[in-house]
Amino acid sequence: MNWDTRRGSALIIAMIMSIIIICLSSSAIFMAVNEQTYTYGQSNKLKSRYIAEAGLAEGVKCVETQYLLTNYLNFSEIDILLNPANVSEAERAQKNCQYQGKRLFTGS
Predict the structure, then answer these.
(1) pLDDT of residue 97
(2) CA distance 80 to 95
(3) 0.70 cut: is pTM over it?
(4) Tens of pLDDT along 40-83?
(5) How many CB atoms lie within 10 A of CB 30?
(6) At what angle do helices 89-98 and 75-82 cross, to 10 degrees?
(7) Buried b / exposed e across 60-97, counting CB within 10 Å, b at 16+?
(8) By percentage, how much of the chain surpasses pLDDT 90?
(9) Triad 80, 90, 95: Cα angle to 5°
(10) Is the dihedral of CA 59, 65, 68, 73 positive or negative?
(11) What are the extents of the domains in the chain?
C-alpha cells in the first residue's frame, strides 16, 4: 500500500529539476549575450572617443602650422574672431582691416 502512494513521484521530481536546470541555463545564456552587447557598445564608444581626439589633435596641428607659425594670427586674435562681443568696436575694426582676406572665420 505504501508503494502505491509514491507512484509517479520520481517523474514529478525529475520534471521539476529539469525545469530548474533549464531556467538556470537560459539565464546564464541571457547574461552572456547581454554582457557581449554591453562590451560591444563600450568598444564602439572608446573607438569614437579616440577618433574624436585624433581629429581635434589634427585640427590643432593645422591651426598651429597654418596660422600661428606663419604669424597670421595668434591666440588672442583667434579669441577676438571667435568672441567678438568681448572686444570693443574700434579694436574689432582694426583687426578686420589688418587681417582682411586672412581671417579664419567669416561672418558678423
Answers:
(1) 59
(2) 9
(3) no
(4) 999 999 999 999 999 998 888 877 777 666 556 666 766 766 66
(5) 10
(6) 120
(7) eeeeeeebeeeeebeeebbebbeebeebeeeeeeebee
(8) 39
(9) 45
(10) negative
(11) 8-56, 72-108
